[in-house]
Amino acid sequence: MNIPRASLLFPHLLFFSGCTSDPQSALNADGPSAMELRELISLFVAVCGVVFVLVMVVMTWALVRRRKPAPGRPQTERSMGRAVSAAIVGTVLVITFLTVSSFYATRSIDWREADPATVVVRGQQWWWKFTYLNADPAKTFQTANELHIPVGTDVRLRLVATDVIHSFWVPNLTGKQDLVPGRENGLTLHASKPGVYRGQCAEFCGLQHSHMALLVVAEEPDDYARWLEAQRNAAVEPADGDAAAGKLVFMSKPCAACHTIRGTAAGGTSGPDLTHVGSRSMIGAGLLENTRGSIAAWIADPQTLKPGNNMPLVPLTSEELQQLSAYMSELR
């Protein structure tokens, strides 16, 4: 059975097409820094490909060429010496070229200066805290695991860590940057078009490292301004009976000692700010889609879903769990 050669390429093309449409792919660049890095990747692949082909050609030629009796050993040694010297010089030139190219490309990750710094990113085991700064302290607020930015604008991030080294990486928009305890690093995000981009901690930080994801939501400036205004507001009062009862459950349990809900007496700081938790796409730093069922499952047994995380098991009756999940879902 004859199979056209072109058909054999189809699976490969299908595979590589996924690299350019993934919400977490360095090849699907939607920001200036990411575009620089994509070009750097392409350059490395091209140069290494050329080097590989040249090496294979030389090896093939050495294996198949017809050897002639050498007129004298010194002449053969001189020829080999020249070949080795040429290879060393070529290697040094190639490595120098790639090193310089890498330096100028990676420098673009942090060369833009948005003034003033707008968001403090704090990494901790195993979730992300985002603090949106404002000259008016009353307009400063916190959210978790979901970073919103305006399209077409440089957004300056201040990166800090609470416990161990983490690494902030949103491959569609920029390169990696570490968060180191006791040291502040900077990073500039810039999205060229609206979209939702997945990020990940890229430095092993413990048991749940793989479950420390984040979303960057790039919005048109008007939509971003509306989101900012909504996030600055205090929590909404519950509208139905279950949610109202859930608020009482929240305040009577240890929840209020660990979490903040602005507009209430809950002012804990060890866990994420839950003022508008119902408006987020995911919970558990990308672990679950944000639905009422997922919220209930997380509250009921966080250690089974994400072993080792810092949220304790809170004893609740089934009725209290239903009420509390209703309250959390209404916090939008």
TrEMBL record:
Protein name, UniProt field: Cytochrome c oxidase subunit II
Q: Where is the organism placed in the taxonomic lineage, from the top? A: Bacteria, Pseudomonadati, Pseudomonadota, Alphaproteobacteria, Hyphomicrobiales
